[in-house]
Amino acid sequence: MSRARIDQLAGKYMNHDMISLHTDLPEFPEGRISLLYAVLGQQPEASKDKELLALVTSLVQMALDTHEMVDNAPPSGIGGMLGMRAQQLKVLAGDYFSSRFYHLLSQAGQIDAVRRLSEAVCQINRLKMIFYGKAKQMKMNAEEYLHYGAELRSGLFLSFTGFMSGLYERLWPEILNGFSRCEVLLHEIGKVESSTSLDGSWGVWHILQEGSEEDRRMLSERREDAGAIQVLLRKYDVSEKLGGMLRQATGQLQTSLQRLQSDKLLRELQPIIEPFVQAGKHRATVLKELG
């Protein structure tokens, strides 16, 4: 079985008719799943179960991310009933993915994996409460935003540290955190370039932290005005700063991977790291041209 086969098997659950017809799903965590699959393949004890472990982890992550998309505000207007149905289906879809995770692992007798992933889910939910509490009270800075983002993405995968040994066990948390940070930074660059979901983004926290009093007030008063926010993002070179941080984070990630001293693993992981490399280069090129 290959990682492509994992995508295929996961798709069997994601592409359920009722779910695909009536609601949207979050992006599949392909990068982190590929990373986990490749590294587990280097572990003598876990290698034989890498396909199953990668599959169930993708299901749990999709369950968490699908529940995260649920809007607690009641839908209104003409499409209110359809909107309510979509929200209900998101809840049910997340529950469905979770149930498949338990079923698959219990069938395989992987009780330890059930325990580790379940504990990781509890920890992630606790972390979300802290994150949202700080955000609501405006007690968070831009770097904390990135830190929490990386921790929330890496939480499930960190639970596999105990499946590793030697150098891999020591480096896995560092590699996973670095990869997750790159993912967050790339996602934030996408937000700026697409002008969507800017509220609560790194750029907004950066301006609230570093901006002038006038700009901070403008940002607070016009949070729904995407045009006004874009003006501020350009003024504070948010896209360029994100690009610089992504290049730095990608370099650190590559250094961590090289410490594993496995050319085979590096070749296997290169395709999932390449988007980070290319995005960092692109921002550097744009900045040079503008300069």
In short:
With 291 residues, the protein is an all-alpha fold. The chain contains 13 helices and no strands.
Which stretches are poorly predicted, pLDDT < 50 over at least 5 residues? none
Domains (count): 2
Q: If helices are DSSP runs of H or I spanning 4 or more residues, what is the number of helices?
A: 13
Helix fraction, binned, reads over 70%
Instruction: Name the helix and strand elements from N-terminus to C-terminus, one letter apiece.
Output: HHHHHHHHHHHHH
Q: Strand fraction band?
A: under 5%
Q: Taking Cα atoms only, what radius of gyration do you get, to the nearest Å?
A: 20 Å
Structural class: mainly alpha
Mean pLDDT: 88
Number of DSSP strand runs: 0
The geometry reads as globular
Give the biggest sheet: none
Intertermini distance:
49 Å
InterPro entries: HEPPP_synth_su1
Protein name: Heptaprenyl diphosphate synthase component 1
Pfam families: HEPPP_synt_1
Give a description of the structure.
The longest helix is centred in the middle third of the chain and has 29 residues. This protein has 2 domains: 109 residues, no CATH class; 163 residues, no CATH class. The protein is built from 13 helices and no strands. The protein is globular, with a radius of gyration of 20 Å. The relative contact order is 0.09. The model has no long low-confidence stretch (mean pLDDT 88). Helix 12 runs antiparallel to helix 13. The termini are far apart. By secondary structure, it is mostly helical.
Which structural traits does this protein have?
single chain, 291 residues, mainly alpha, 2 domains, 13 helices, 0% strand, globular
